[in-house]
């Protein structure tokens, strides 16, 4: 058993729902007890979809368990087929139905419906949401994809333009709607045609034509990598490795796509509306240099965020982690390149302890980290699912492509104080307005976690213990603007601790400042 | 999935359906119960789905550390129950070390824990012995195979009844109000009962586990919520007697509810009127403001919390609303007898659910307002229906005189909003 307060991912059948809901002409019959229907509200409330997910639940109850739950499942399939007339059906079990072992695959086969029925086996006690989405996409593509009419060489010579599929965007995905628009524009500008987008808006008939394209673009490896690998093995379709998040990665992505299509990338790169790189070079951004940033999210977004932070904004990555265990190796490699140890965990309390220990100046994380950062008084920007209603903005707000890089620049930099503003604050810090009670854009003052009565004890790192401050040093510390004071206190105490200095004087404060720098 | 029409009494046609239910399971009750009992912790023994459900239901994600958590069962826990029990002990020890402020721990059963027959009552006994007297450990089921939405509260309160202190045979006559109410509502009722001269009044659940009410044959209990079948049964076992009444929704409902208690405690009729009339008049004024927006409007209620029938009675009698269909997950005739007597005789009731067929009926009837769960609301709005989320009727204080106007406003707001938005 694992003690869990909040979870980063839902169960695997929610991943399957994300695929079914993204598609058209598919219906998912889920053997599940009543209550599991809560998952509908993820789509209708969080994502604000205007339709119910195409899911029928058997909603069995205790009284059904002694009887014919298998019959219930068959009735649900038959009625769903009659009512919704889908082109293909997914059938599977949630965690409870998995235990009663009704064999959805066999029952579906026995019904002999005149459409493809794809049974899903999603082990609920081992796997989670993203894996469930990946497995579902793979199973449905595997069941429906036809071998292409022409072999790749013939196809290539017959067609004037290259064709690629876009794989990965789902319902309830973090900015998938806008990423898809942005990447589509990028690829079309290159002079490449888009074949099938899957699962987003795809029909079962569309999936059958996936193998016709020249190559696949994998937008979200957590969801589409397994499928792309299978398509490569089966139909010799290459797929892209670069995820176009950030200006640098977008340029690499354009090169990679152009190479796969055998064309010149210059056209797409020339027209790019790329402001973020220039903004990062502009003098107002110099204050961003070495800002200490902590990154946590799904593997793809976390790795991309760390790369942008380090290479495109000049931050210092002090922590990097992910809840995507399937991609832990990639995250560890990335972390090593920044000289930090990756944090691979599903336990948000562990993430909170790490953030509290590192005291970064910016947190890039999920909605959970946003909450952690808020409590610690640290600026934060959201970079990854799990999704919150705020992650489905009314405006166009991609993460991918050149516009995505612009969006990211704004989203990450705005929670910080602007450069000139920060400089002026330093200059005028003796003025009455710049004291602790002056209004701050960060809202209330940070609450130390250990003092919060609703919160369990999180051990503070040992560096905090053991030293006392002279009144004079304490007074000097209070002259430092509040938003960097915590770091100054911490650095000084660590400095004192390491040198066995029991009493922190004015001299210790400035010795520590000299030692640590800014 | 069968549908049958059953005639129960004169003019009372109830459509009974069994099909897909679009309702929460009993685990959802934790979302309000953990706010109510301030030193209690709710540990769901379940799957990732359970954790995800509570997280999604809890105000569509509020990321503070709450007083609930899930012990997520994994593959190896399913292999052997002995190991599962060891694991549970380990998790509870870990939790109580982290949260020394907890005095009452509920182990909450889920669908998977029940299917594998993990005996949480034995676990609760074992852990109670281990952590007594600092922490008391109880258990109940919030599983979807046993409980529908508010039945989780029923199961929770029923698990508390056996540990309530015994009122001796010579104890004075006392009143127990049963069902979680918002603190503000509870305080209003406390003041009201005091003004009526009923002095020994307590509430279940209490705000702190150290303030458990005493019960016994001298206790009369009054239900504040219509979904407390098991709790009522457990109280009867302790010798308590139920005061028959409708539920305290609306001005009329609150008055009749209070009067039932007043009669039981021999409060003088003139005194009762003197105390309640000004409050009743104020509530009527508050409700009256919304009557122009609601009178003559046609409402369809999907089954959700079992408070649909008292709500429908309030809407029909105090606001002049036409009732198209009143859905309820269960119809508990005994506890709802006083409510059913007040409903318009032509009102159509449905018990249970087959959500697709019910949606067909709803579209066919084209009501002015649909009261439904979060999974249905936006899709129905997109189809052109005005909707009211039923879950708000559980999370918002709606009982009593001072909330009667707020309750009316909850139904008026979607209609007002639609009228206001230009595009």
UniProtKB/TrEMBL annotation, chain A:
Enzymatic class: oxidoreductase
Residue ranges occupied by any Nitrogenase/oxidoreductase component domain in the UniProt entry: 12-416
Residues engaged in binding substrate: 419-420
Keyword list, A-Z: 4Fe-4S, ATP-binding, Bacteriochlorophyll biosynthesis, Chlorophyll biosynthesis, Iron, Iron-sulfur, Metal-binding, Nucleotide-binding, Oxidoreductase, Photosynthesis
Cofactor(s) recorded in Swiss-Prot or TrEMBL: [4Fe-4S] cluster
Binding site for [4Fe-4S] cluster: 36
EC number, as in UniProt: 1.3.7.7
Record's cofactor remark: Binds 1 [4Fe-4S] cluster per heterodimer. The cluster is bound at the heterodimer interface by residues from both subunits.
Subunit structure: Protochlorophyllide reductase is composed of three subunits; BchL, BchN and BchB. Forms a heterotetramer of two BchB and two BchN subunits.
Signal peptide (UniProt feature, chain positions): none
Active site, renumbered: 284 (proton donor)
Record GO biological process: light-independent bacteriochlorophyll biosynthetic process; photosynthesis, dark reaction
PANTHER family cross-referenced by the UniProt entry: LIGHT-INDEPENDENT PROTOCHLOROPHYLLIDE REDUCTASE SUBUNIT B
Protein name: Light-independent protochlorophyllide reductase subunit B
Reactions catalysed: chlorophyllide a + oxidized 2[4Fe-4S]-[ferredoxin] + 2 ADP + 2 phosphate = protochlorophyllide a + reduced 2[4Fe-4S]-[ferredoxin] + 2 ATP + 2 H2O
Family assignment from sequence similarity: Belongs to the ChlB/BchB/BchZ family.
Molecular function terms from GO: 4 iron, 4 sulfur cluster binding; ATP binding; metal ion binding; oxidoreductase activity, acting on iron-sulfur proteins as donors; oxidoreductase activity, acting on the CH-CH group of donors, iron-sulfur protein as acceptor
Light-independent protochlorophyllide reductase subunit B-like C-terminal domain: residues covered: 469-513
Residue stretches in coiled coil: none
Role this protein plays: Component of the dark-operative protochlorophyllide reductase (DPOR) that uses Mg-ATP and reduced ferredoxin to reduce ring D of protochlorophyllide (Pchlide) to form chlorophyllide a (Chlide). This reaction is light-independent. The NB-protein (BchN-BchB) is the catalytic component of the complex.
Pathway: Porphyrin-containing compound metabolism; bacteriochlorophyll biosynthesis (light-independent)
Positions of the UniProt region annotated as Disordered: 437-463
UniProtKB/TrEMBL annotation, chain B:
Catalytic activity as recorded in UniProt: chlorophyllide a + oxidized 2[4Fe-4S]-[ferredoxin] + 2 ADP + 2 phosphate = protochlorophyllide a + reduced 2[4Fe-4S]-[ferredoxin] + 2 ATP + 2 H2O
Ligand binding ([4Fe-4S] cluster): 25, 50, 111
Entry keyword set: 4Fe-4S, ATP-binding, Bacteriochlorophyll biosynthesis, Chlorophyll biosynthesis, Iron, Iron-sulfur, Metal-binding, Nucleotide-binding, Oxidoreductase, Photosynthesis
Oligomeric and partner information: Protochlorophyllide reductase is composed of three subunits; BchL, BchN and BchB. Forms a heterotetramer of two BchB and two BchN subunits.
Known role: Component of the dark-operative protochlorophyllide reductase (DPOR) that uses Mg-ATP and reduced ferredoxin to reduce ring D of protochlorophyllide (Pchlide) to form chlorophyllide a (Chlide). This reaction is light-independent. The NB-protein (BchN-BchB) is the catalytic component of the complex.
Family: Belongs to the BchN/ChlN family.
Record-linked PANTHER family: LIGHT-INDEPENDENT PROTOCHLOROPHYLLIDE REDUCTASE SUBUNIT N
Protein name: Light-independent protochlorophyllide reductase subunit N
Organism: Bradyrhizobium guangzhouense
Originating gene: bchN
